[in-house]
Amino acid sequence: LTTYGAHCSSAEGKMPITILSPIKPATTIAIDGSGSSQSVSGWMVALGAIGGSHTIEVANATSRPYISLTANIMEHFGASVEMVDCAGKLTIKITSRGYTPTSLTLSADWSGAAYFAVAYAIAQSGRAVAERYTLRATIGTSQADEAILDILHSVGAKIAIEEREVRFMPSERLRAFRYDASDTPDLIPTLAILALFCEGISRIGGVHRLANKESNRTEAIVENLLALGARVAIENDELVIEGVATLHPAPLRSHNDHRMVMAMAIVSLFMEHAPTIDCVACVAKSYPYFFEQLKG
Question: Where are the alpha helices (DSSP H) in 211-272?
């Protein structure tokens, strides 16, 4: 923000931040996108609001589906967004006269729905079999985390997909999987739980994306799964988890991370003696009614 004209102040680099003047961006803004797509999305939305023509050059872009989702939303509000990927650099050209009010329907959040999808798949593989479980959610979105349905298909879950719901039918034992989650890092805690209930050794790639979330999620996942008696390791950029028959209750640490709480809550459903999880109120960051819906 300071580089592009804003005057900002903060207390030793921490929140809150006071912004004393608007940004005055140059024709081209250069961003390193290796840490997160969120800073890229933030600049995109801001430049669309300012109006005019702007270019963002993103080196090492990650979570590209989220960048595409941002562009799609901006276009709903009247901006024009063109994205060109060349030689490892993502160039985003934004043209706008500011945003125009519009009406749009928001899709269900697949980052949240994924916890229930995994729970239903595990249940139907022999843990809590019912005639069917139904997840009501928007199908065919541009959200990256809707990939959970393809992953569950690949491990042997029996799923019937309709326009606004997914039905989970009884299946055989789920099988191990390998998945690169570099573009879907929010799925990794959920996939770690799925791996516990799959036969064989599963490998989840892209764990470097987890270091700077609400917690260091790689460390938090390993710590909690080891506490439950799971076999888990980090090899290069992969989380390696072996499916186990039995897990043992233990005090689990959320690290004040909403996704860690929700993942650990799902594994607790399938343990004879449930573990304890601390600081569960942090689910309010993204899913305030998670436990209410889980009870339902």
Answer: 217-227, 258-268
The reported pLDDT for the residue numbered 212 is 67
Dihedral sign for Cα 170, 173, 175, 180, please.
Answer: positive
The whole-angstrom distance between residue 122's C-alpha and the CA centroid of its chain comes to 20
- The fraction of the chain above a pLDDT of 70, given in percent, is 99
Residue 39 φ then ψ, to 5°: -65, -35
**Quick one: which of 221, 228, 284 has its CA closest to 254?**
221
User: What is the separation, in whole angstroms, between the first and last Cα of the chain?
Assistant: 45
Rounded to an integer, what distance in angstroms lies between the CA atom of residue 137 and that of residue 111?
11
52-59 β-sheet, strand order = 28-32, 52-59, 89-96, 80-86
Q: Is the pLDDT of residue 143 over 70?
A: yes
Q: If phi over 0 gives left and psi between -120 and 50 gives alpha, with beta otherwise, what is residue 272?
A: alpha
Give the residue numbers marked as catalytic: 186
- The predicted model scores a pTM of 0.87
Q: Which range is least confidently modeled, 25-34, 142-151, 216-225?
A: 25-34
- Sequence-separated (6 or more) residues with CB below 8 Å from residue 126: 173
Residues 6 or more apart whose CB falls under 8 angstroms from that of 258 comprise: 214, 282, 283, 284, 285, 286, 287
Alpha-carbon span 193 to 241, nearest angstrom: 9
Could you give the CA distance from residue 280 to residue 260 in angstroms, rounded to a whole number?
A: 9
Rounded mean pLDDT, 123-143: 92
